[in-house]
Predict the 3D structure of the following.
Amino acid sequence: MSKRNGIKSELIQSCRMEVLKNCPICGSELFEPFISGKDYFLTGEAFGIVKCRSCGFRFTNPRPEASNLGKYYESTDYISHSNTQNGLFASVYQLVRKYTLGRKLSLIRRFQKNGEILDIGCATGQFLNFVKQNGWKTTGIEPDDKTRHKAITEYGLQVFPEENLDTFQKASFEIITLWHVLEHVSELNERMAQLKFLLKPSGTLFIAVPNCNSFDAKIYGEFWAGYDLPRHLYHFTKADMKLLAEKFGFKIVKILPMKFDSFYVSLLSEKYKSGKMRWLPAFWNGLLSNLKSMPVNGHSSLIYVLALK
Ligand SMILES: [Zn+2]
């Protein structure tokens, strides 16, 4: 499993796989291989990304069956599921996360003055707790039992498992947020339809996802941490998000960069490529990504602000 190329056993995943026959966005049956990579974070298993010949959308295919995806999150290191601060990397991550909480709230306030926020994939609830302290009504969805329990006990938040999304009333929320979540969701179309159902007609939807057209994605290739195989099932560009939004009656009203992600993703990518935390090259590539990615292809991660048409 450890050799980089050509080992047959790398191609055998330890769980059942699902093969997508149609492009999740346009439905085309014609794809071509785009890139092969591995789960550099946890299992070392090999996975591939295909590109739709019709609309250009890139997605992980084949992918672990939805019921088996949980094992790819079974690590104490899965950083968004943790509030601990061990090591320099985790400390910096937590510092940046605190800073970005303020940025996210001021972004939301540009579009909605008050109301109820639904945060899907709320992890340990730091963002929801922050907005709750600032006067918003909050509801969270978190599929991982332990992480959800942490959000409930540490902050007293209302957080539910994923299946509860079906129980909410139509047009319940002024704001729905998915911070680095949509790329993990097995049923992309069903989820988009659900978001449309749950959002108030005048509401705003915020979707943050990695951008596989960014400079750092091109520099690191298969080692780019934004692919995060097989946890990331879809690899979005601005064009893909526009198609997806329109398919479900949304329009993109704004696209904003997440500039810290260029550094964070470059550092992880350096680790996957060289086995070491190479801070200097990561910082340099992160900086270049922020400088060079503008304005056409976009930064390492982007926040899409959507409204119903
Ligand atoms: Zn397509």
